[in-house]
């Protein structure tokens, strides 16, 4: 005859002969990975909201109408020390012209202007947005304007803060 043995005939932590044995502690990796993924997602989302993390920029204030037309653009930040950042990445002054030219070539092909005898290529649907610190030198700004002209980029926009928001921040 067959005897029925229970599936667990010893208490947890005991062997069949009744002696105690220690089970090695286990680390459950699934909750650990879940927590790490949540932290990673949080960090990825929070870093996309920082715009000029490399340079601290204090924009000048102005009143005007904001333009919300989507265009291809190069964002150039100029710090009060005269340092430059292109699309959030710090660039040395001697590499700035090459970087602007490289980014503008990724836009649509140049359109030829037929006005006057000398036809000049103009990059269409693209612009440069200059975010210069209020205390940045005019020479730094003019240098960027000159490089934009050399790259045949005719649309240049200066970023400012809204004058009303600046007044409300002052004590």
What descriptors fit this protein?
4 helices, Biopolymer transport protein ExbD, alpha/beta, two-stranded parallel ribbon, membrane, protein transport, 30% helix, transmembrane helix, transport, five-stranded mixed sheet, 171 residues, elongated
Write the SSE topology.
Layout: H1 29-48, E1 61-62, E2 72-78, E3 84-86, E4 89-91, H2 93-104, E5 111-112, E6 121-122, E7 126-132, H3 138-150, E8 156-158, E9 161-162, H4 163-169
Parallel strand pairs: 1-9, 2-7, 7-8
Antiparallel strand pairs: 2-3, 3-4, 5-6
Helix pairs in contact: 2-3
How would you describe the overall organization of this protein?
The chain is an alpha/beta fold. The chain has a domain at 61-168. It has four helices and nine strands, in the order αββββαβββαββα. It has a five-stranded mixed β-sheet, covered by helices on one side. Helix 2 (93-104) packs parallel to helix 3 (138-150). The N and C termini lie far apart (94 Å). Residues 7-11 and 116-120 have low confidence and may be disordered. Belongs to the ExbD/TolR family. The chain crosses the membrane at residues 29-49. Residues 1-20 are annotated as: Disordered.
């Amino acid at each position: 005859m067959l005897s029925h043995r229970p599936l667990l005939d010893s208490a947890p932590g005991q062997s069949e002969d009744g002696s105690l044995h220690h089970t090695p502690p286990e680390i459950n990796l699934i909750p650990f990975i879940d927590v790490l993924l949540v932290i990673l997602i949080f960090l990825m989302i929070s870093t996309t909201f920082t715009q000029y993390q490399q340079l601290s920029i204090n924009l000048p204030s102005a009143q005007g109408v904001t333009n919300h037309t989507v265009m291809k653009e190069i964002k150039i930040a100029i710090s009060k020390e005269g340092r430059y950042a292109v699309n959030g990445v710090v660039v040395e002054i001697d590499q700035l012209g090459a970087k602007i030219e490289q980014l503008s070539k990724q836009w649509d092909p140049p359109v030829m202007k037929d006005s006057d005898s000398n036809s000049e290529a103009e990059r269409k649907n693209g612009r440069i947005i200059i975010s210069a610190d209020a205390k940045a030198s005019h020479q730094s700004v003019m240098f960027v304007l000159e490089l934009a002209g050399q790259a045949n980029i005719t649309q240049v926009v200066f970023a400012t803060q809204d004058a009303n928001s600046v007044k409300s921040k002052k004590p």
